[in-house]
Amino acid sequence: MTTIVGIDLSLTSTGLARITTDGRKWIVETNCRQSKPTGTNLAARDSRIRGIRDDVIAWTTPCRLAVIEAPIPHGHGAGTFERAWLWGAVVSALIGRHVPVVAIPPATRAKFAAASGGADKAAVALAANRMWPSWTPGVPHGVNDQADALALGSIGVVLAGLTPPFLMPAYRVDALKKLPRMERAA
């Protein structure tokens, strides 16, 4: 069995997708890990980030490939430092477990799923359901985050060299061409 995971990382609502195949049958599972701040001091922030990281790693490993949404390069506002801290903690934990990790820009995820780099979360959720008609969100909250993770995992299916069970129209192929060469070689 081969498992590919998609991670739509967030401090408040992390979407997770696990796609498993034996080459014929595909199993798609999604989940959402929600979190709220427990305090503003460093110890409380660290505890929250470690908790999210540990839950993400427990749910996604072992796997052949992890595809995570890349951070926005010039992000600002509340939580910017914590989001970067969380992203680095999760990526480091995956790499420490010898899991290949590919970071996908948000616009690439949207274009791959919904044919437009500017597609909103609802459009990506609709497209994810079209790619995986049997998919049902694993939990009732964070459905759009689960769909984003499923779109990322779907990119991973292609990057891992598997034959996807969904169509690969030109816009999906084009979205992957925009990835740096190293990222496509996963």
From TrEMBL:
Signal peptide: none
One GO MF term: endonuclease activity
Keyword Nuclease found: yes
SUPFAM superfamilies, per database record: Ribonuclease H-like (SSF53098)
InterPro entries xref list: RNaseH-like_sf, RNaseH_sf
Keyword terms, alphabetized: Endonuclease, Hydrolase, Nuclease
Protein's UniProt name: Holliday junction resolvasome RuvABC endonuclease subunit
Biological source species: Amycolatopsis pretoriensis
